[in-house]
Every structure is written in C-alpha cells, then in structure tokens.
Write a structure and sequence with these properties.
single chain; alpha/beta; 7-stranded parallel beta sheet; 16 helices; about 45% helix; globular
C-alpha cells in the first residue's frame, strides 16, 4: 500500500496554492495524500486534484467559536482516519493533529506558512497572542519534522525553540511555454494585487495612491477587510470610474492567466509583526514567473532576492505618494527601458526559481521521515 499522509488547513482548498503544490508533488512521488480543509458558505465545488480532499463544515465562520468548533470537528474526523504521518499547517490546526499522531504513535509534522503568533490580527490582541504563543511552545518541541516558507522565518523559529526548521519556499511551478515578455495591449495599464484582504497588507494606502496613478487596479481575493476596502474605494470614486475592480476569489488557473495579462504586480506589507516582516509570499514568485515587474515592500527576504535577480522596484514605506511614483514608473508612460530590463530579468530567473527545484527539498524531507515505503498505520 502507498504511504498515507494527512494534511490539515483552515483554508478553502480550491485557493490554497501552496498546499496544492505540496500535495501534488507528494502524490506524484507515490504517497497517498489527504488534504483536509474548510467549507465556506460560498465555497465552489472542489477542483480535481491528484490527491484526496475533504472539507469540514462549520456553523461559525470566525473568531474563538470558529477555532473551537473547527478543531473539535477536525479531531473527530481524524480519529476515523489512518495515516503514516500527520501534518498540521500552522498553529490553528496543530493541537488535534498532534493528538491524533500521538494516539497512533506516528510522526507529527508542522508546516509553518507564517509565524502565526506574529500576524497583525494576533499582535494587536495581547491576550490572544499569549494563548497562541503557549500553543506554539507546546507544539514545536513535539514535532518530528518542521519546515517553513523562507530562511528568515526558519531562523526565528530556531532561535525561539532551539530546533532546526527546514525551508520549502512557496515558489511557482515552471510552465512552458514561458509567459509573454510584455503585457497584452488591452491590459497594458493593469496593476494586479492577489492575496488576502486583511490588515497589514498595504491595501488602504494603495487605494489612496490610485488617485495619482495612470493605471487600473485589479484586486483578487477576499478577507476580513473586504467590506471596508470596497467602501473606501467607493468613497474615493475609484469604483465608479472603473479604476479599481474587486474580482473576489479567483481560481489558481484563472489567476495565472490574469497575472500574465498584468503590467505590474504589487507585494505590499506593513511592519505589524515579525510574520509579515520576514515573510516570503508566493505572489512574489507568481509575478516573476509571469514576467511581470512588481512594486515590493523593502523587507529582508524580498531585498535579498531582488539583489540577486533584480525583478522588482523596492519601496521603503507605503505612503500613497511613494506608491504612486513607483507604480507610474512601471506603467506605459514611465521608464520603458527600466521596465524592459525587469521583464528580461524575470525570464532569466524562472529556470532557477521554480517549484521543480523546490519540491526536491520537500520530497527529501519526507523520504527521511518515512524511509520505508509501506509503514504500518494505526
């Protein structure tokens, strides 16, 4: 029998590109993979994948009651499953996964997509932060394998807990033929934001900046600030003029097409906690693979990559005037020669920065964790 692996998230599985890459790679290597996630009221039917998927329905959709309900439902679901190893994605699924692994005597794996105790929503609430830190301090010493998305976050975890964290970066899969070298004429002024609409993502100053920008902004994603951001865009007249468009959730395949049509991508974060400051977001690589120059906040991981590959313009802060100037430089009336150099650098970087290279680290981690192909499962 194939070796069974179970992964757990609180996201909608259709839009979690990191988990789609991880689970597909492991399934392709011969593992039997189950990914467990969350059913939202507006969730679309699951998209076909080369691994099994299951979504848990919850009555509550946010806050303490959601986490309590989801973790209880997850534990009950896991008790009826068998696996050779159990992997929790971030702290919000870690406790039931650890308990199930302990009951069966199998390895417990922790995949930290972020430094959960340092995201803005947690940092702003000291009592909540203390609770999550206690969970992290309980969980991390008990894992058989731990990995995260970037070297900076790995160093933070290692300093906190005195144990190694491997790195599996969230990089796009290299697809052929490569993305076009320039945007399509009909999309020559498109600025693209993809990701969650949450606190600390730089979206409020971005909307303010659009009043001074000679382009159109398309926002793909939803989050805690969805209503507030739409209201802000309406107050600024950006919705009425068509200069800003909210697309909501976009399936990964459709998002890749839209990204290739964009002129500029944006990767903006505010320094509201170590998780954002040391982040290495997948959208940075998505823009790069599409041959789309980007405006990026000057945080350590992005600075290090840009010093090596020069695919983006870094900005030190998110003042609207600074954002507007950086965006206008990359739009059609800006610095055309500079724009072409960034596009060319994106295409040169793709053969080095891609999931085909990164997945080898992932497969090596699980091969060392489960060296036999047919372990006993309980």
């Amino acid at each position: 029998m194939p070796t069974r692996l179970v992964f757990t998230v609180t996201t909608d599985l259709n839009y979690d590109q990191r988990m789609q890459r991880i689970c597909s790679s492991l399934a392709g290597a011969g593992y039997e993979v189950l990914l467990v996630g969350r059913q939202w009221p507006a969730s679309r039917p699951l998209t076909p994948q080369p691994y099994r998927q299951h979504r848990l329905r919850c009555r509550f959709t946010r806050g303490k009651l959601f986490y309590l309900e989801f973790n209880l439902r997850l534990l009950l679901f896991l008790l009826g499953r068998r696996a050779a190893a159990w992997c929790a994605i971030d702290l919000d699924t870690a406790l039931p996964v650890w308990l199930r692994a302990r009951l069966g005597g199998q390895p417990f794996v922790y995949d930290a997509h972020e430094l959960f105790t340092e995201v803005p929503e947690v940092v702003a609430r000291p009592r909540v932060q203390r609770l999550w830190r206690a969970i992290e301090n309980f969980i991390v010493p008990r894992v058989s394998l731990a990995y995260t998305v970037g070297p900076a976050l790995a160093r933070v975890f290692e300093q906190r807990h005195g144990r190694p964290f491997a790195v599996v970066r969230n990089i796009s899969r290299l697809e052929e033929p490569p993305a076009p070298a320039v945007a399509e004429p009909a999309a020559a002024d498109i600025i693209l934001y993809q990701g969650a609409l949450n606190a600390g993502r730089g979206l409020e100053p971005l909307l303010e900046a659009m009043l001074q920008v000679n382009g159109r902004l398309i926002i793909c994603g939803e989050g805690d600030l969805s209503d507030e951001l739409r209201a802000q865009a309406r107050r600024l007249g950006l919705l009425q003029s068509g200069q800003v468009e909210f697309r909501g959730y976009v399936l990964p395949a459709d998002l890749r097409i839209l990204t290739r049509q964009a002129r500029v991508g944006v990767m903006l974060l505010e320094n509201q906690g170590l998780s954002y400051y040391y982040s290495l977001a997948n959208k940075f690589f998505d823009y790069l693979h599409a041959g789309v120059p980007q405006v990026v906040i000057d945080f350590p991981e992005y600075r290090a990559l840009n010093e090596q590959y020069n695919v983006a313009d870094l900005i030190p802060a998110l003042e609207p005037a600074t954002l507007a100037a950086a965006l206008n430089r990359l739009l059609p009336d800006g610095d055309a020669a500079h724009y072409r150099r960034l596009v060319e650098n994106c295409h040169r970087a793709r053969p080095e920065l891609n999931w085909q290279h990164e997945e080898q680290h992932l497969l090596g981690l699980y091969a060392r964790l489960l060296p036999t192909s047919s372990p006993s499962v309980v």
